Amino acid sequence: MASDKTIILITGANSGIGLETVVALSQASPNFHILLGARSVEKGEKAISEVKSTSHPAGPLKGTISVVQLDVSDEKSIHSAKEQIENTYRKLDVLINNAGIVVTRPCDTLTNLRETFETNVFGAMLLTEAVEPLLKKSTMSGGPYIIHVSSSLGSIGTRLDPEDKYKGVRGDTYRMSKAAMNMMAACHKFNYAELGWKVCTFNPGYCVSNLTGPEGREVRLSSGARPARDPADALVEIVQGKRDGDLAKSGIVDIDGGVIQW
Ligand SMILES: NC(=O)c1ccc[n+]([C@@H]2O[C@H](COP(=O)([O-])OP(=O)(O)OC[C@H]3O[C@@H](n4cnc5c(N)ncnc54)[C@H](OP(=O)(O)O)[C@@H]3O)[C@@H](O)[C@H]2O)c1
C-alpha cells in the first residue's frame, strides 16, 4: 500500500526531544504520518497512549502516529524496521536520526567510546544507509529530508573558544561522537546533493530530557534548561522547509536560527 501522507521516521522517540517532536509534528499537519521509533515497543506504545490522553495547549493531534521497533545499535532491528516501512508505506519522506546516549555510569574509556559511537554514530549511519532506497521513493515536494540531531558540543571549531558557554562541559566521548555525526552529515550533504535531498545536523540546545538520567533531569530543570518542546518546534520548521536557507549553509543548524560552525 503506497501512502499519500508524508511519512516521517524519528528514532529514540519514546522520550525527550524525540517524543516532543512526534507531538509537534502531529499538531502541525493531518498529512503527516509519524513513525515513533523506540527500541522497546512497550515504551513506544506507552508514550503514544500518554500523548493521546493528554490535552495539548498547542492544539490537537492531527497527524497519525504509530510505533516502529528500532534499536539503532542492532543491525537486525534496523533492517526489520526498514522492511516494515517498505511493506506498509513503500517510501520514506523524512528521517530524523534523534536517538542518542551519554554514558553516565563509571566505565573504562574504551567501553564508553564503543557504546557512545555504537548508538550516536554507527546507528545513524547504518539506518540512513538502510532506508536510502525508501527515501529515493519519497513523494515529498522539496524533500526528502535527513536530519541528524547533533549538538553544539560536537563543534570542533568552538571547543577551544574561551567565550563558549559550555566550555567547562567535558564529555569528551560524547563530543567526539557528535563531531563524527557532523562529518557524516557533511558527507551525506555532498553525496545526496545531486538528488536534491535536504540534509543537516541540528543543535537542539540544552534541554530538559532523560539524556543524563533522572538525576541529570533534575539538574537540567534547576539549571535553566529549556523545554524539549523548543527543539521540537524547530524540527517541525525544518521539515516544513522554513529553515531551508540554513540547511543550504555549511554548519550545524541551530535551534535559534542560523548555523554553528562544524
Ligand atoms: N537534551 C539536551 O540537552 C540535548 C542537547 C544536545 C543534543 N541532544 C541530543 O538530542 C537527542 C535526543 O536526546 P534527548 O535529550 O531527548 O534524550 P532522551 O530523553 O534520553 O532521549 C533519547 C532517546 O534515544 C533512545 N535511545 C537510546 N539508545 C537507543 C538505541 N540504541 N536505539 C534506539 N533508541 C535509543 C532512548 O530510548 P530509551 O528510553 O529506550 O533509553 C530515548 O528515547 C540525542 O541525540 C542527544 O544527543 C540533546
Automatic annotation (TrEMBL):
It holds the Pfam family adh_short. Belongs to the short-chain dehydrogenases/reductases (SDR) family. The lineage of its organism: Eukaryota, Fungi, Dikarya, Ascomycota, Pezizomycotina. It comes from Rhypophila decipiens. Transmembrane segments: none annotated. GO terms for biological process: secondary metabolic process. GO terms for molecular function: oxidoreductase activity. GO terms for cellular component: cytoplasm. Signal peptide: none annotated. This is Short chain dehydrogenase. It comes from the Eukaryota.
